[in-house]
Amino acid sequence: MPLQVNIAEAKAKLSFLLDRALAGEEVVIARAGKPVARLVPMASRAKRKRGAWRGWKIEAEALLEPMASIDLDAAEGRHTDEWGITKPRTSEP
User: Fold this and answer.
1) Of 50 and 38, which is predicted with more confidence?
2) Residues 29, 6: Cα–Cα separation, whole Å
3) Contact 38, 27 (CB under 8 A)
4) Greatest CA span in the chain, whole angstroms?
């Protein structure tokens, strides 16, 4: 039978619950007595292949060419309202 805990208890005892899930026990988190989530261990990730980027080169010209003005403005923190971000305030009146 799985261990069922409410959200408040899960927040208070997350480390303990993670240890139990890693040990193989099923841990279910519930809201108002209804299950909403289950803690399970992550599957093992495959090892990365070493040297996958070996021989990959960036041409020096690509790094030294001037940036487009829109990219330069974005890098300096000046944005348009197109994305909902306004230009930063300045101390000038």
Assistant:
1) 38
2) 6
3) yes
4) 67
